[in-house]
Amino acid sequence: MCRGLESLPITCLERAKELKALFGSLLQKSDHSITGAGQTKKCDKLRLNTDEPLKWKESFEKLLSCQNGLCLFRAFLVSEFSEENIAFYLACEDYRATKPSKLATKAKKIYEEFIGSDAPREVNLDHVTKAIIKKNTEHPSQSCFDLAQSKIYTLMEKDCYPRFLKSSTYLELSRKTKAS
Fold this sequence. Notes:
Layout: H1 10-28, E1 33-34, E2 46-47, H2 52-56, H3 60-65, H4 67-79, H5 83-96, H6 103-115, H7 127-138, H8 146-166, H9 168-179
Antiparallel strand pairs: 1-2
Helix pairs in contact: 1-4, 1-9, 4-5, 5-6, 5-8, 6-7
């Protein structure tokens, strides 16, 4: 069940608006920082290179590895009512870096939020994968969500990412990048 824009962190919404509104002026200079009140430590100081949007088209991995690209892609997924996919993917990335003593708690939270049949942000996984993940969470390890994360990554790469590259926002950004 999608909760819409309110489920997107305010920092990503702000970042997406800033990127869209300020991109023209950002393209005129090679290096700018974008900061705003209330941002997370991760987003305190971002720099946008002039060719950054063109790199996003090279691969899905390059889009996700760039903080600006990730925020814009996440905002796009909200507009497509599929933000739970990137939220799950990022939760799995965070989970993988979790201390072993906290794995069980985090595994339960991720399962309840994204995988269980009544999950508020249920991702689209087949029954067999869900069963494997449920079994994995009984004795959690840092890799217990790898199968599900891989399937969601592939879904986004094959479905959402091509739509993002065809979106008016991305096309406008890449057109301005090429023109500069």
